[in-house]
Fold Engulfment and cell motility protein 3.
Amino acid sequence: MPQQDIVKIAIQMPGAYPQLIQLDQKKPLSAVIKEVCDGWNLPGPDNYALQYTDGVQTYITESNRLDIKNGCILRLTKAPGRCAEDLYKGIQSSDSGVRCDSLKQLACVSTDVTFAQEFISRDGHSLLVKIVEDVDEAPLIMTHTLTGFMELMDHGIVSWENLSAVFIKKIASFVNANVLDVSIQQVSLAILESMVLSSSSLFQQVKQEVTLERLLSHLLVTNQQIQTKAMALLMALLQTAGDADRQELFAFLGKKNLRQYIYKNIIHSSASVGDEMAHYLYVLQSVTLNHLEPRMRMPLDSYNQDQRESLHALRQAAFETESENSLSHERRRSLCAKEFKKLGFSNNSNPGQDLLRAPPGLLALDTMAYFASRYPDAFSRFVLENSSREDKHECPFARSSIQLTLILCEILRIGEPPSETGSNYHPIFFSQDRLLDELFCVCIQLINKTWKEMRATQEDFDKVMQVVREQITRTLSSKPTSLELFKNKVNALNYSEILKLRQTERLHQEETLAPPVLELKERLKPELLELIRQQRLNRLCQGTLFRKISSRRRQDKLWYCRLSPNHKVLHFGDVEEDTETPPIESLQEKIPVADIKALLTGKDCPHMKENKGKQTKEVLDLAFSITYDMEEYSLNFIASSRTDFCLWTDGLSVLLGRDMSSECMRSELDILLSMEIKLRLLDLENVPIPDSAPPVPKPPSNFNFCYDLSQAEQ
């Protein structure tokens, strides 16, 4: 006989020594019980059953007996049918003590489905309904009755829809009562919740019978169980209601300031919120925010007069313009396009095109309009400040707003149904009536602040938005309880702080890596650094166009600099405006790499010293120079972007035999190391890796799917 068919267990019975047996899983359970009864000289083995002693004390049946493990301790007890019969009789006893004990035991054993089937087969659940409907029992007896009934119904053997209107009214009266035993109210709230979740017809009956005023008053009590069950019923009503009923419920709860109600009496007054309550707060947050989903899913309709007027009202709020009615059609169209461009729309001739993306759809227009009307000074300051910057450095308000609205929708999970196990609610939601709009107003100003901290250009838009997403997510994860607290925390979490946090987390992650992985990382570094060095030298060989900045701070002449293919000479010279990549022979000036003595950056550069105190921090961060021929001469550069600055200073460092030190190099090295380690650690058994790259696919027959950039520039 295979070993897995035998399980060694102990069986107990009150007043007798335990039996240690080897349970044969192939032997019928009735035969096993007979052997146990014979061991204790007990007649009538059919009246007995086996039951777990630990945890949920479930009856052992043929369907679950394979769950028994070696070392389990079981109990010999009354068979479910005999127990059900005894309790059914005890509940009908004229002795209140017997009734109370029977109902108390019923509440405990009804959690077992085998017992529940036996008790319900005797119509025991109807007996409990009759007690609730017809009898005014003592509070303790009524509590046991309702608890037993709830446990029986939870098995789904009997439909909730079979309950009478009288029973529903009686349960609702327990909830509506001003003075009643809290245990009765607690289980009554749970019964009503199950009714609501079971069918739409019961939803209507419960909605008619339960006083919402009284339901809200249960949130004021100090008993957390009552608060939680009241919240559970409220969420069940909201989740199962049809659109019309849900709107009615939200209107009522809005008048009663439900969010502030919860914030004051549950979140703010409690030292901690229990897991069950946290789930219901999360559900309320989710259901409420999902009211915004239709606007989020709806793109702008260019034929909708109200939507067009909202778009133009946004433009007019940003710019004080002359009376447009007196202008010709062409002049007005040109003026609108110019102002929409300043406002940050990509398609300035038809800005509605920017709002065709759904999500965020019309929700983005709503948030922009709210910001413009709620905080007009901040709105005007944002738009005008960026209108005065150079085109490449301006932070586009409209484009940023559309992307920010999408980010907030994703963070707040708008449009996603609430999870059955979710509990991640935001306390700030309950202190604000218009959470999305108010968060937007704080975060759109945060974007402008972060944009300046990162010295971003249009090319850095996605990078800035990633940082802003991280700032918002990190701040919300700290559970701020008010908008002011969120504002202070998110503004304190500037770009430099984000970089520090990322570095700290990366170092912590490295510390947790296994020693072989760290060793592999160190072995890979030299190879990857050499790859970056070659890329930098190749970039210098391609060359870059630089601008000369005059003493009057006017951009005038252009010049080009590139490294010779043999990496021995720097060629440079003036070029015309429309020059792309001049041939190396056309660059008349040259400096042998061997003559270069030093690489200088920032305020140490000669051309920065000459204009000390006159250069902006932005220019200082992009300036670098090389000195040559005994350091008497210098070639001075001002890069057009931080990327070009990093590429050239790294490349020149390589030529001088020094280590590269730019932030771009560190970032690229981290990316390459991460990718290489992941590839090395992949389980590639029986997966052939080609020696050469796969062929590039043939181009498509047409390019009609491409976006026409010329439209955005008009």
User: Anything to note?
Assistant: The mean pLDDT is 89.
